[in-house]
Specification:
The complex is a heterodimer of chains A (about 160) and B (about 450).
Chain A lengths: L2 E9 L4 E8 L9 H18 L4 E7 L2 E7 L4 E7 L5 H18 L18 H7 L21 E3 L11
Parallel strand pairs in A: 3-6
Antiparallel strand pairs in A: 1-2, 1-5, 3-4, 4-5
Chain B lengths: L4 H21 L5 E5 L11 E4 L2 E5 L3 H16 L7 H14 L4 H12 L5 H14 L4 H19 L13 H22 L4 H13 L5 H16 L5 H34 L6 H15 L3 H18 L4 H18 L2 H4 L11 H5 L4 H9 L10 H14 L6 H16 L3 H19 L4
Parallel strand pairs in B: 1-3
Antiparallel strand pairs in B: 2-3
Helix pairs in contact in B: 1-2, 2-3, 3-4, 3-5, 4-6, 5-6, 6-7, 7-8, 8-10, 9-10, 10-11, 10-13, 12-13, 13-19, 18-19
Classes of the chains: A alpha+beta (about 160), B mainly alpha (about 450).
Chain lengths: ~160, ~450
């Protein structure tokens, strides 16, 4: 049961920008870690591009599950986890992070931001804390709309279809 | 880029030497890996040592592997001689690239048997290979062979000081067991449901640790967190089922001896069997520390908690079936255990505290050995046995609890898989257990 990455992005028109990210690749083989991290950065970006504003989805990519939440104001968050990590905790986490981020980082900085320019440092702490879902926030029931979140099987990244 | 046979030979010799030097420079290497690197950088060794990690750049593997593989086969076919050091280096290189190459492990077996190679080196090499190939069957198989060698060596008193392991024999075995538990745990973490790792772990408990109550209990507590964080790992949960099952067998066997001894002693009060009574006391002490029904209850609680927190994992439902079955299995041994029951009143408070069937709470009383030495216990044995054999093992409380649990899950869960598993569980339970009670 593992979280691998937590990213905040901005879904601009037309491009998606990475604003800030945290990674935990410690469970991977030492020499694989940098390429795994690259893969996660790329995948987070791609999935945000393919998701519509105001949507939540869980996309299966190889043996990972990528949980994405794109708010209607364009702020987006992606959690990449394994297939044991409970889905609802991921979305609770994303809600929380995006909420906090939007209060701490001015909206004006989103369209042009990058990890170097954005000052928001809580992601590493969240990623670490949520590694054990039971240590993190209590398991509260998330809103009913999450029940409709389906797991989409993506065979290849390129064939990842437009998520509603 | 090396292409001609001579260049390849030079490259390979250099790489094999680099690997050997790396191990000599750093005896604490704890992980190996392949570095994706399609082309050689000019004049740089493909062997990379960073912190305690040993990496091989991928470009050299296509030259290295066939060459050393071939060299070892030529040696085996007696077409080319290799001295002992060369054999050790070549097999080491080979096994780090492909640990399922049985011939290489077998060459090392010969080296161990001839006394040239320290078997502990093979345990270390195997451990490294498992960091990259956590399932590798040949690595696990060779590991068991090495451990058997070490056990044999351990049991020969003449080799006690000369042996490969330091310290006293019991201490050595204990250390070996602990190390094996660590290796298995790491390998299990690197690959989901790593059957080979978990069955090796079981083998070690059976052959090195001899399935003592202490080791079984230790393992139960040390794997609890692990399975809670790997809720879809069938092999991990199966391991716990094995531990509980072994505990039942162990305790029942010990208890049978206990009861038999008691009856023998009562019939022959003049019989002075000091050894037996001492042994009985030891068994009694061990058995006293295992409250089996409580352990099973705790396991059931753990299972329920995980099912609630992590919906949609079939492993947990399978585990629940098994724990339930073990509880039934245990309570079926009740007649013999009832020898130690001083009173079996159904109105006792343990019934209120227990969340499960009264048969289990009766069991909780049965495990209390305080009544054992009462002179009336022999009389009580006959009466209680008759009573319990007549009455059903569980009353109506058991099925209700199960139905209640499943219904609760079905009414509150929103996960399709969870609903499916809960329904299947209810069907299984109804067909297996409810009808029998009618």
């Amino acid at each position: 049961m593992r979280l691998y990455s937590l990213s905040v992005l901005y879904k601009g028109d037309p491009k998606v920008h990475l604003l800030k990210a945290a990674y935990d690749v410690s469970t991977f083989n030492f020499f694989q870690r940098s390429s795994v991290q690259e893969f996660m950065t790329f995948t987070s970006q791609l999935i945000t591009e393919r998701s519509a504003l105001g949507s939540r989805a869980s996309v299966k990519e190889q043996e990972y599950l990528c949980h994405v939440y794109v708010r209607s104001d364009g702020l987006a968050g992606v959690v990449i986890a394994d297939n044991e990590y409970p889905q609802r905790v991921c979305f609770t986490l994303l809600d929380k992070v995006l909420d906090e981020f939007s209060r701490q980082v001015s909206k004006m900085d989103w369209p042009t931001g990058s990890p170097a320019t954005i000052s928001y440092s809580a992601l590493d702490g969240y990623l670490s804390k949520y590694q054990n879902p039971r240590d993190a926030d209590p398991m509260t029931r998330v809103q009913a709309e999450l029940d409709e979140t389906k797991i989409i099987l993506a065979r290849k990244q390129n064939s990842c279809c437009e998520i509603m | 880029m090396a292409e001609s046979p001579e260049e390849v030979a030079v490259l390979v010799q250099r790489v094999v030497k680099d690997i050997r030097n790396a191990f000599q420079r750093n005896p604490h290497i704890d992980e190996i890996g392949l570095i994706p690197c399609p082309e050689a950088r000019y004049n740089r060794s493909p062997i990379v040592l960073i912190e305690n990690k040993l990496g091989v750049e991928s470009w050299c593997v296509k030259f290295l592997l066939p060459y050393v593989h071939n060299k070892l086969l030529l040696y085996r076919q007696r077409k080319q001689w290799l001295n002992k050091d060369e054999l050790i280096d070549i097999t080491c290189t080979l096994l780090l690239l492909n640990p399922d190459f049985t011939t290489a492990w077998n060459v090392r077996k010969e080296l161990i048997l001839s006394g040239t190679l320290n078997p502990l080196k093979d345990l270390h090499l195997g451990k490294l290979a498992l960091t990259k190939f956590p399932k590798s069957p040949e690595t696990w198989i060779h590991r068991r062979w090495v451990l058997q060698q070490l056990i044999q060596e351990n049991s020969l008193p003449s080799l006690a000081t000369k042996g490969n392991l330091g310290a006293a024999p019991v201490e050595r075995i204990h250390r070996l067991v602990q190390e094996e538990m660590n290796v298995c745990s790491e390998a299990a973490g690197r690959y989901p449901s790593n059957y080979n790792a978990w069955s090796h772990r079981i083998w070690v408990l059976q052959h090195l640790a001899k399935l003592t109550v202490k080791v079984l209990l230790d393992e139960l507590s040390s794997t609890k967190y692990w399975v809670s964080m790997h809720v879809s790992d069938h092999s991990g949960f199966h391991y716990r089922q094995f531990l509980l099952n072994s505990l039942i067998h162990r305790t029942v066997t010990d208890n049978n001896i206990l009861v038999q001894n008691q009856m023998v002693n009562e019939q022959n009060p003049n019989l002075q069997k000091e050894e037996e009574s001492a042994g009985t006391e030891a068994v009694c002490a061990e058995e006293q520390s295992v409250d089996l029904p409580r352990r099973l209850d705790e396991e059931m609680e753990l299972c329920n908690e995980l099912i609630d927190n992590y919906p949609g994992h079939e492993t947990l439902w399978c585990h629940r079936r098994c724990v339930f079955y073990l509880q039934q299995h245990l309570s079926n041994k009740l007649p013999l255990m009832s020898a130690v029951v001083s009173s079996v009143d159904s109105s006792d408070e343990s019934l209120n505290n227990s969340h499960h069937s009264p048969a289990i709470s009766h069991m909780a009383q049965a495990m209390d050995v305080d009544g054992l030495n009462e002179s009336s216990s022999k009389q009580g044995y006959t009466q209680e046995t008759k009573r319990l054999k007549r009455a059903p093992v569980q009353d109506s409380l058991g099925p209700e609890m199960e139905y209640r649990f499943v219904d609760k899950v079905l009414s509150t869960c929103r996960d399709g898989d969870q609903a499916r598993f809960a329904t299947a569980y209810r069907k299984w339970w109804t067909e297996s257990y409810d009808l029998k009670k009618k």
